[in-house]
Amino acid sequence: MSRVLIVGAGLTGSLCACLLRREMQNKVQIVVWDKARGSGGRMTTSRPPDPSSHSADLGAQYITATPAYAQSHHSFYSELLSAGVLQPLLAPVEGLRQKDDSKNYMTPLGMCSVVKHFLSESGADLFFEHHVTGLYRRGASWEVQRKAGNSETFDAVVLTMPVPQILQLQGDLGHLLSVHQTQQLERVVYSSRFAVALFFPPDAVLSFPWAARYVTGNPCICYIAADARKRNADAPGLGPSLVVHTSVPFGLEHLEQDKEDVQPIILQELHKLLPGLPQPISIKCQKWRYSQVLTSVPDCPGHMTVLDRPLLVCGGDAFSHSNFDGCVESALSVLSVLKASL
Prior knowledge:
Blueprint: E1 2-7, H1 11-24, E2 28-34, E3 45-46, E4 56-57, E5 63-65, H2 67-72, H3 74-82, E6 87-88, E7 93-94, E8 103-106, H4 112-122, E9 125-128, E10 132-138, E11 141-146, E12 152-154, E13 156-159, H5 163-167, E14 170-171, H6 173-176, H7 179-186, E15 189-190, E16 193-199, E17 212-214, E18 221-226, H8 227-230, E19 241-246, H9 248-253, H10 259-273, E20 282-288, E21 293-295, E22 303-307, E23 311-315, H11 324-341
Parallel strand pairs: 1-2, 1-13, 2-9, 7-17, 10-14, 13-23
Antiparallel strand pairs: 3-4, 5-8, 6-8, 10-11, 11-12, 15-21, 16-19, 16-20, 17-18, 18-19, 22-23
């Protein structure tokens, strides 16, 4: 039985695991490693330290399906809709620029529920706090080293983490990549931003009418969302949560500062935009060094094969585009390579 390691428990990694399981059934052992303490990647949902507040989506906020992708990825959308993971986004979003006949969807249980759905369908062996540091070719297999703990051997490896993290890996990857491939990877550019979640007590009232709002003309903040409203999930007894995303220029300007130093600047701007906000029980600040792909690998191939045997393939939104459908495209592309190899 082939052992396949998927590095990264974000959307692309979880889709790869799920699609591979459906394709190969019990002919393959699927292992997923992620360096974080939980799944989701940039579709992460943060639980408050105090269980009396609503959770908050710190990364992706909702999913937009264009008419073309609603058709070509119909099976993915219908699966998530029938499982109750996705529902139409009906709450008011101020400043939302609605394009063509696109449809917006939200997740009643938070954005990470999409990733968790595909991981649970995959039956993969899932390991968190497994930070891959190096890849070494050992005959017909890969020895994969991690920060803390023993190295393990796999027949095929799929890398779905952000490209700069792929390029930092030690071992044989560097000299297996062609000059052309290295140049393509080095030209990938990501935007950076900060996200802040404020968790409020159950008696707190947010006095504005919208569920989310795109902010224009502010040097710091570009988006604010009351998460429970966005998800149509005002649960009795739970306090609201508020998510704030900074603009990309602000993220870039403060990228190398500690998030503890940046948080007060964001909160100061937030109180100017929303004076009279209640006092939160707790606040969480997240630095997204790799937020969205601004420049992807040319021609959006969906994947990059580093070596055919033993298979080493890279995937993720850097090889397509930065949204749900981009990750689906990449996972389908990686699957075709895995099928041919295994």
